[in-house]
Write a structure and sequence with these properties.
The protein is of the alpha+beta class and 131 residues long. It has helices at residues 82-93, 106-113; strands at 5-12, 18-28, 35-45, 56-61, 69-78. It has a domain at 5-87: Nucleic acid-binding proteins (OB fold (Dihydrolipoamide Acetyltransferase, E2P), Beta Barrel). The protein has two helices and five strands; from the N terminus they run E-E-E-E-E-H-H.
């Protein structure tokens, strides 16, 4: 039986002798018919730590190397693009500030705390039990 070969983008090269490859596939939604992209991550063996994040690679199915690694990297298809490599660093640099709530004036605060007008409930008359 032939071994499966997939191509994808390396999203992480942090583990030793391992790369995480994201493989995207396009499928048609069964009900609505829209073409959607589905992706799955595979852990692949990289013996020489030669591949870096952002590179396009081909991976081949193999015998299990570890609990998660059943794939080996065959070859590099394309080099890493500058936008792919620098994007995570740019996200860390930009700090998202939290928007503060608008400040209410003291008069509005008092009006907000004041309960709405309530109707007076009529007192219940003690009813004698029917005999």
């Amino acid at each position: 039986m032939p071994k499966r070969v997939l191509s994808g983008t390396i999203v992480s090269d942090k583990p030793d002798k391992t790369v995480v490859v994201r493989v995207e596939r396009r499928v048609k939604h069964p009900l609505y018919g829209k073409i959607i992209r589905l992706s799955k991550k595979y852990h692949a063996h990289d013996e020489g730590n030669a591949y870096r994040a952002g590179e396009q690679v081909r991976i081949e199915e193999c015998a299990p190397i570890s609990k998660q690694k059943n794939w080996t990297v065959l070859d590099r298809i394309g080099a890493a693009r500058a936008a792919d490599v620098e994007a995570p660093a740019a996200k860390k640099a930009s700090v998202v500030t939290k928007k503060s709530k608008p400040v209410k004036s003291p008069a509005k605060k008092a009006a907000a705390k004041k309960p709405a007008a309530t109707k007076a409930k009529p007192a219940k008359a003690d009813a004698a039990p029917a005999a």
